[in-house]
């Protein structure tokens, strides 16, 4: 066994093979775990580990499951249980960058479920590289459906075996090949300079399919912006280009004109992807709570105040004064921000009716449930959000993202053409557990709201507070995202006051 450094800088590529549910409500059982630890500077394998896993219920291994990965009941009978390998899995994954294909939606969740079943805290990554998301953003769909088997066939790497260790090694090779192609494409020498063939704006004939890009980098010294008054995209460095705009490529360091990023440096890629995932989840939500522009007083204000500071009620928003622009975020990365009269726009709304309680169907970069609930949108709130949505969508389209835009206001005819919005309750890992970042209060009649102390990450306890029909006051930020080919504006709750029925 290789003795590794204490900084745990290695990238852990891992994969799990599981049973396949055959009825609603049936979960997955891990049948195999495989991982390799990779040096981020040399992209060489330092250590490997794989083992079959015996599930508690062998009947979960059906013929459908066997067809998917070839693992039979007889194969796993002599294998250890997950409880017996949990220490080894934890040691491989804890505190490292996790990498794999579609791990955010599948493998990370399965690992967390397996640790929960044995009543142990799961390992936590310091960042993630989901090659499905990365390659879809950076490589496009030239290789078809972007499944691992399709990518392997595209590069002539053989057939995918759907066995954990083989798949993670194939995953690393696919990334190397894609990086090579991208490196060559971005360094085509023309008569006068080195240019990328992707530096022209992507045109789309289908105006109904809106796209977006939230985390971007530009070589221009000033960022483009859009103002609702004239819907004009402006940037001093782009004014002489007859309306065209440089693609602001996702996750590309803004190193200026003198330096170019090394596309073969997986360490840099891991940092960039870590920034993307953390921005879409915990890091941005925590930092925005601490930032001066988005802070909310923990104490509730006097009766004469609505209780929120630095937030605007929808009635106080002058829609023509809304604008969106690209702003520096972290290490050269840029993201879209929504402004109102040159100030970061944040909103407060009173008496919002809860339509649907707490949902856990979305997950964050570590596979943890991303908590949210749905409220009915008031006409004025929807008017403001629609304006912000349209401007951010327009800017992202011209920035070259291929992600599908998800409107911030949901309209469904099945509910009398009602308009709803989703409020997210951010969480962050705190040691071996998670905690809320939203300040939650409860208000009895005209009494002063009292801050609630809820158990750490007890979703059932939180869900009991936001039952359908309950009214809440909310102050929230408008955080743009572009993640796994989905993009839009996420409403992140900073403070919630629940009105007692």
List the helices and strands and how they pair.
Elements: E1 11-18, E2 30-38, E3 45-52, H1 63-69, H2 73-76, H3 82-93, E4 97-100, H4 103-117, E5 127-130, H5 131-138, H6 148-154, H7 164-185, E6 188-189, E7 194-195, E8 211-212, E9 215-216, E10 225-227, E11 232-234, H8 266-280, H9 282-290, E12 322-330, E13 333-340, E14 343-344, E15 346-363, E16 369-376, H10 379-398, E17 403-406, E18 409-412, E19 418-425, E20 427-430, E21 433-436, E22 439-443, E23 450-451, H11 459-465, E24 471-483, E25 486-499
Parallel strand pairs: 1-4, 4-5, 17-25, 19-25, 22-25
Antiparallel strand pairs: 1-2, 2-3, 6-7, 8-17, 9-13, 10-11, 10-12, 12-13, 13-14, 15-16, 15-24, 16-19, 18-19, 20-21, 22-23, 24-25
Helix pairs in contact: 8-9
Structural summary, described in words:
- It is built from 11 helices and 25 strands.
- With 501 residues, it is of the alpha+beta class.
- Strands 9, 10, 11, 12, 13 and 14 form a 6-stranded antiparallel sheet that branches. A 5-stranded mixed sheet has the order 3-2-1-4-5, with helices on both faces. Strands 15-16-19-25-24 form a 5-stranded mixed β-barrel, surrounded by 5 helices.
- α8 (266-280) packs across α9.
- It is globular.
